[in-house]
């Protein structure tokens, strides 16, 4: 049985649509959170993920921020939050999401200890994990356990124009690390069209892109 595992869509509907096309067909979907914020399509991303058959969604920190209505930051991320929150209206769909599930010998959760976990992060594992949050796709092992980071669908922090996700085959135990390049100009064009602050547009414009 094949399960597509993805995270950190961040309101990027074109990237999400392409990921779904690339991953299909699979029997199950698991979203590790942070569907909302940053991009202009938080509502539409919630709806599309809800339409997937056999899809489980985990809460991310940005779902928590939207529910609380509070985001403590003084940098550009607060400007994204202030722009995106008033346009969001799918609160019923995100208010009761689980923080973690256990399947196939793995714990699926958004992150561990609210940390950004990177390939070189020192962390003592106590079980096998699938996580997201840091927007970097990788696999690491210690203490006899494995951690996979799904990376980001909608806001890759290595190359902004790359979509990452994972596919777990529960029959064989194999995990495929998936990624592909896409044209992110449609995202930035929509941000300009609906009036995002220039600092938010500059954030995306300034990121490295895979040639």
Automatic annotation (TrEMBL):
CDD domains: MPP_superfamily (cd00838)
Top-level taxon: Bacteria
InterPro entries, per database record: Ap4A_hydrolase, Calcineurin-like_PHP_lpxH, Metallo-depent_PP-like, Pesterase_MJ0912
Residues annotated as domain Calcineurin-like phosphoesterase: 1-172
Signal peptide: none
GO cellular component: cytoplasm
Pfam family membership, one: Metallophos_2
GO molecular function: phosphatase activity
Protein family according to the UniProt entry: Belongs to the metallophosphoesterase superfamily. YfcE family.
The protein's name in its UniProt record: Metallophosphoesterase
Organism this protein belongs to: Paraburkholderia franconis
């Amino acid at each position: 049985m094949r399960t597509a595992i993805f995270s950190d869509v961040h309101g990027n509907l074109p990237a999400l649509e392409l990921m779904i096309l690339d991953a299909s067909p699979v029997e199950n979907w698991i979203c590790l959170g942070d569907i909302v914020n940053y991009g202009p399509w938080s509502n539409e991303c919630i709806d599309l993920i809800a339409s997937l058959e056999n899809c489980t969604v985990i809460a991310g920190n940005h779902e928590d921020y939207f529910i609380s209505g509070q985001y403590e930051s003084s940098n550009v991320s607060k400007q994204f939050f202030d722009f995106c929150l008033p346009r969001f209206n799918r609160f019923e769909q995100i208010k009761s999401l689980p923080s973690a599930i256990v399947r196939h010998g793995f714990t699926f959760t958004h992150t561990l200890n609210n940390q950004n976990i990177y390939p070189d992060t020192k962390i003592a594992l106590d079980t096998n994990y699938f996580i997201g949050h840091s927007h970097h796709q990788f696999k690491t092992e210690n203490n006899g356990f494995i951690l996979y980071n799904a990376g980001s669908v909608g806001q890759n922090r290595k190359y902004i124009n790359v979509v990452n996700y994972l596919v777990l085959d529960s029959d064989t135990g194999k995990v495929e690390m998936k990624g592909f390049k896409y044209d992110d100009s449609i995202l930035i064009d929509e941000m300009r069209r609906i009036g995002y602050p220039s600092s938010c547009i500059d954030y995306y414009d300034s990121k490295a892109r895979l040639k």
